[in-house]
Amino acid sequence: MMRRAQSLYPHFLYPRSLLRPCSSSVAAGFGRRTFTSAVINNGDFAADGKWRCWPPSVPAPAASTFINSKSVSVGLAGAVSFSVALSTAVEAKEPPSWDLLPKDVVLYQYEACPFCNKVKAFLDYHDIPYKVVEVNPFGKKEIKWSDYKKVPILVVDGEQLVESSDIIDKLNQKIHPENVIVDEEESKWRRWVDEHLVHVLSPNIYRTIPEALESFEYITTHGNFKFHERLTAKYAGATVMYMVSKKLKKKYNITDERAALYEAAETWSKAVDGRDFLGGSRPNLADLSVFGVLRPIRYLKAGREMVENTSIGEWYRRMESAVGESSRLQA
């Protein structure tokens, strides 16, 4: 079991530099690059095509809905209630003009990957219809056609785009060809997401064995796994990632993982600085990036505690409303 578990390391949100080489005798389908990117280094959430938080929660209000002191109940291993209080109406989505709307968009993803969620947040906010191909991390046969062996991969009208930030840049240029001005504040915080925020997540969602099991319950339930793969991934993967999270803390000089998560949430809240979004009255690409990478953890224990103990909650709820329902096409 442990030999197979070791081969799960590379796709569960941690750098390959922390890994020991795996034995060549590990069972087929469990190679070195099997699983880590499914959670934080490459991938996304959203199984039902309409609402991507996990576990299923109350449907998000329409993008233009005004919310004022309403109570929303969210379930995760029992009901968790929190109060939603917004004083400002959220702007509607921003779909591109019809002539600039891509005609055929396919996202190759892991359901639990925050980087895939970044891409999906962009697509959903701009109301761009897209199809999803869930990649099985054991073998990745769904992307054997590509030389690029990680997710997300977005195919737009036959053109392959890779790396979440590059995907968003290129797609944004396609639908907003007139927008050539670089926003330095937006760029700074997008880099912060990729270079700092994502590194805080793994130590938090795998902080304890129960939290690691909670995370893998979502991953294995919503990912593309066969029955035996699901069992192996959940129990062996959770155990492995619990141990790996300790190495991540050391690598990124994290003493207290929860404190680091709360600090990141407060850092972002201070950057927003009283505005509805960093972009002002509408989310910009930095807002969508932060929202995307946080979405996979929002209703896990780490995400719930982050909202309870920091001031990021109202911004996050505004983002849920602004991004609105998914534009994902049903298969």
UniProtKB/TrEMBL annotation:
Keyword Thylakoid: no
UniProt catalytic activity: prostaglandin H2 = prostaglandin E2; prostaglandin H2 = (12S)-hydroxy-(5Z,8E,10E)-heptadecatrienoate + malonaldehyde
EC number: 5.3.99.3
Pathway participation: Lipid metabolism; prostaglandin biosynthesis
Cellular location(s): Endomembrane system
Domain of life, source organism: Eukaryota
GO cellular component: endomembrane system; mitochondrion
InterPro entries on file: GLR_AS, Glutathione-S-Trfase_C_sf, Glutathione_S-Trfase, Glutathione_S-Trfase_N, PGES2, PGES2_C, Thioredoxin-like_sf
Domain GST N-terminal: start-end pairs: 103-179
Entry-linked PANTHER family: MICROSOMAL PROSTAGLANDIN E SYNTHASE-2 (PTHR12782), PROSTAGLANDIN E SYNTHASE 2 (PTHR12782:SF5)
Protein name: Prostaglandin E synthase 2
Organism in which the protein naturally occurs: Platanthera zijinensis
Lineage: Eukaryota, Viridiplantae, Streptophyta, Embryophyta, Tracheophyta
